Structure formats: C-alpha cells, structure tokens
Amino acid sequence: MASVKKPPSGAEPSADAPTAELGPRKLIRPSLARVLRDQGVSRGPSSRKMVPPEQTNAEAYYYPKQMQSKTPIVVRLMDGEELRGWIEWYDKDVIKLNRDHAPNLLIPKRSIKYLFKEEEERMHKRKRRPEPPSSEGGSG
Question: What is the Cα 65 distance to its own chain's centre?
Fold first, then answer.
C-alpha cells in the first residue's frame, strides 16, 4: 500500500491546497462487467440465451375466451383424428370437449397436435375454392 504523502514542511500551504493529509485515492467506478450488463451486452458463460418458460400462460387468455362464447373448435389429435365441439373446461393436463349428438370427452393435452376455431376452417376452404365461371356475361 502506498504511504501517505505530506506537503513539504518548509513551504506554506497555498490557498487552493487542501489542508488535510493527502492519501492514496481510490477511483470509484463500476466494474466493466456491470457496465456491460447494464447496457445489455453479455459475455461469458452466463450470456447464453434464457430457456423459454415451460408455460407461456397463453392458454389462460385463449381457453376462457373460447369457453365463455362456446366457440366451435376442431381438435386435431396426434394420430390425425379430428374432434369437433366446444371447450367446457381445462386444466394443466386435459381439456373437456363437449359435443352435440356425441359423448363429451376428456382429451389429454399431450395427445393434441393442434386445435383451431371451426370458423377458420370454413374461411380457409372458401379462399382455396376457385370461383365457378360466371354464365351471365357470355360471349355471343
């Protein structure tokens, strides 16, 4: 550690000179790692991308909305089978699908490939179907 320096004994202290003893000064500044972290720059092994959360909570918004309006849903299972109905309730592992003229089902979420609104299927089919030729404006 550096020793404390004193002004020369024979000289008179000047008006701007500090009257206290001069000592080693410590420069106070944040570490480089902290500055980089605060600026969003990451380095080292801790800079790996975060693993996405297991749950996005998207179902907490989607399912209740569909349940409330009893939206007709198409559920495509992993084996390709399609089930149609509306969602009565859900939990972490299953959904309960109510169906007209068929038994209600508890479907494990792990067996669902995807699901969508029945209305979207109808809209998609309309877009894909070519319009038939019009017979009104004939040539002749």
Answer: 20
| Residue 82 domain boundaries | 70-128
Measuring CA to CA, which residue among 70, 85, 83 is closest to residue 113?
Answer: 83
**Residues in contact with 66: Cβ distance below 8 Å, sequence separation at least 6, in sequence order:** 73, 86, 87, 117
What is the count of structural domains for the chain?
1
Asked, for residue 90, whether it belongs to a domain, the answer is yes
More confident residue, 96 or 50: 96
Residue 9 domain-assigned?
no
- Select the more confidently predicted residue: 27 or 83: 83
Q: How far is residue 86 CA from its own chain's centroid?
A: 27
CA quadruple 80, 84, 87, 88: dihedral sign = negative
> In whole numbers, what is the pLDDT of the chain averaged over residues?
79
pTM for the complete prediction?
Answer: 0.52
Where would I find the H helices in 2-139? 32-39, 59-69, 118-128
CATH number at residue 89: 2.30.30.100
